[in-house]
Structure prediction request, 269 residues.
Amino acid sequence: MASGPRSAAEEAVDSKPMELSARAGLIAYGIIHVLVGWLALLMGWGESVPASPDLSGALRTVAMQPFGKIVLWLIAAGLMALAIWQAGEAIWGSPDGPEVARTRAIRGAKALVYGAIGVSAGRFALGAGSASGEEPEEAASGAMTVPAGRFVVGIVGLFIIGVGVSHIIKGVKKSFLEEMATSAMSPAVRRSATLMGRVGYVAKGIAVGVVGGLLTYTTVTFDPQEQGLDGALQAVLVQPWGRYLLSGLAVGFMAFGLFAILQSRYRRM
Prediction:
């Protein structure tokens, strides 16, 4: 009896409508990264920034556009579909073998990330978006006040650093191409995908690593000043040649976004 509902759920996740919706989610994921990169570039060169260069800022930028709420609902729907598809891959699509637990954990974590961004997009569409730049500091401060909170925050920071390192390695080794139907690409498209993927993953990995570093530093100083991606990019900006370093990361985020949009066409599903 248990196989019936499971089979139906597996078929729903593997259906053509779900695949098309998940591919639309990759486009939405890419657009968000392009916007984050654009906002970071504006901040780096002292231009007027309509919102902070992070997830909330990207969603707020969309919300301020004509038909912004409609676009936010489309982004939310696409990302939720992508999260469901990724969760299905974690449950039913992971190959047997010694790496099955690791593969399921990675796919499950991706599903949570896509779902969380989708929920955030829905909140902004409803006009309930959070104030940018406040929640990470408050969360870190609150966690530090509970028993073992300092230890937990440190572990989370180290985990985030690990995620950043894994992004850099993925970019350097070009292992992201394993997820794509490269045989269907023309030589020019494959070169473009490789370049955007390498630049994008390395830049995002550096930014994520700085986020984790700031969070870990909080456990030493007890001073959660600027956390999250916005805080990480601000930390880069104040360094020597920070404007140029930040510009490099911004271009990398935009490259990652364009790669995700291209991936929506060639991702193996």
